[in-house]
Amino acid sequence: MLDQYYIYFILFYMLFINSAAFLLFKRDKSLAKKGKRRISEKTLFLSAIIGGGLGAVIGMHIFSHKTKKAAFLLGLPIIAIMNIVLILFVIKELV
Hints:
Elements: H1 2-34, H2 41-62, H3 70-94
Helix pairs in contact: 1-2, 2-3
């Protein structure tokens, strides 16, 4: 029974962190257009590393943001895949 709550927590966390990563890319693109101080690349990568890889990749492509930087173009999909594999492994262990 407790394992079920862990799974719900993991799914809620993933929804939250991926939404946050997506919105960070949206906000940074908006700031870039206005010529204002931007969100650091470290913060954008950190949002992906802590579980928001998929949201970051989707945000990067929807907003056409950081798509010319190899570190983002190659790194974010790799991070997203690692996030998915890790979550599937954890959920498999809980079930």
